[in-house]
Design brief:
This is Apple domain-containing protein. It comes from Ditylum brightwellii. The protein is of the alpha+beta class. It has three helices and seven strands. A four-stranded antiparallel sheet has the order 3-4-5-6. A three-stranded antiparallel sheet has the order 2-1-7. The longest helix has 14 residues.
């Protein structure tokens, strides 16, 4: 598991561009990732898949998980709430019109956003796994 997390961090630092976010992002979350368990049937234990994505950094899930229909082509940034430190109760998921992992660059404005809770089953998002539960994964704790 440690090797997988290390590999994900290396890949994310190479393929995920930096993004200057105008809000405050707490130092306590810089080494954190978002663990998302997506399920076909309301966060059950069957027919689920777990994904690990960055927090407070732009990413394109189609690049991270090629061939997986659970994700759209749009860039995403999952942002911890302003003034929040982890563990927080929620985060902001922002979508951008770009699909290159840039979130529109320095002038990028999100086209849509949602406030989502940590630790609760939410959805529906869309096929093939419309339900999800998200949690913060501290990379240092996983090593």
């Amino acid at each position: 598991m440690t090797r997988l997390l290390t590999l994900l961090l290396i890949i994310s630092s190479v393929i995920l561009p930096s993004y200057s976010y105008e809000g405050t992002i707490e130092d306590t979350v810089e080494s954190s990732m978002l663990r998302t368990k997506m399920c076909a049937d309301f966060c059950s234990v069957d027919n689920c898949r777990t994904y690990v994505t960055p927090l407070n950094r732009c990413y394109n899930a189609r690049h991270l998980f090629p061939g997986d229909d659970a994700w759209s082509d749009l860039d995403i940034m999952d942002v911890t709430m302003n003034g929040s430190t982890l563990p927080s109760e929620e985060f902001q998921r922002e979508f951008y019109s770009t699909s290159d992992g840039s979130c529109g660059g320095e002038t990028g404005m999100s086209t849509d956003s949602y406030t989502l809770p940590f630790g609760e089953c939410v959805g529906p998002f869309g096929a093939p796994r419309p339900w999800g539960i998200m949690s913060v994964m501290d990379v240092a704790e996983e090593e």
